[in-house]
UniProtKB/TrEMBL annotation:
Protein name per the record: HTH tetR-type domain-containing protein
Keywords from the UniProt entry: DNA-binding, Transcription, Transcription regulation
Cited InterPro entries: Homeodomain-like_sf, HTH-type_TetR-like_transc_reg, HTH_TetR, Tet_transcr_reg_TetR-rel_C_sf, TetR_C_27
Regions crossing the membrane: none
Length: 196
């Protein structure tokens, strides 16, 4: 591969493939350079070391994983229905990835233990999506909430148990997700609204 065709996207794609091929424990930057037929130095011009490159791969993977969230936010539906869809998507996206893309999910788990920046950014983005819907619900009169920021953090924390791998094989998982989400939404509802 010549230098002109080497860019960040090409490197990220190659890194994902290397992680999938060797797993996050064994994959290294030498494998990425070899798969692209370039030297380490060529990669370091774009990413200053393995940690930076692996963080970038995981950040992009998380962004793609939650792409459906942006579509849910744009739905022309009442806030309570949108919030239900969003929280279900948050819970199911990571489980689907663990089943369909286990190496990248394992890479995410490894990163979660060693580098909090990417994970914290993902949590912040998720919390902001929830807050946007809560604010919409307040404007619609569906939700009554004095502090949308805190409510969004609380909702995110309450549902984050479902993104943990320990919850993936629970035979009551779908029912538990629906029960928790339903309870949270009922807690946000405006008590003065007559069409509850």
């Amino acid at each position: 591969m010549d230098k002109i065709s080497l860019d960040k996207e090409v490197i990220l794609n190659a890194t994902e493939e290397v992680i999938r091929r060797f797993g996050p424990e064994k994959a290294n930057i030498s494998d990425v350079a070899k798969s692209l037929n370039v030297s380490h130095a060529a990669l370091y011009r774009y990413y200053n070391g393995k940690n930076v490159l692996w963080n970038a791969v995981t950040e992009r993977w998380l962004s793609n994983l939650h792409a459906a969230s942006n579509e849910i936010i744009k739905e022309d539906k009442p806030a309570d229905i949108k919030l239900f869809h969003l929280l279900e998507d948050f819970a199911e996206a990571k489980r689907r990835s663990a089943v369909n893309d286990p190496e990248m999910f394992a890479n995410y788990l490894k990163l979660a233990q060693s580098s909090r920046d990417v994970i914290e950014k993902s949590v912040e983005e998720g919390t902001n999506c929830i807050k946007d819907i809560i604010v919409q619900g307040i404007a619609e009169g569906i939700f009554f909430e004095e502090n949308p920021d805190q409510a969004a953090k609380t909702v995110y924390l309450a549902t984050s148990v479902f993104i943990h791998p320990n919850s993936f094989d629970d035979s009551n998982r779908k029912q538990n997700i629906e029960s928790v989400v339903d309870l949270l939404i009922r807690g946000l509802k405006n008590p003065n609204r007559t069409d509850k």
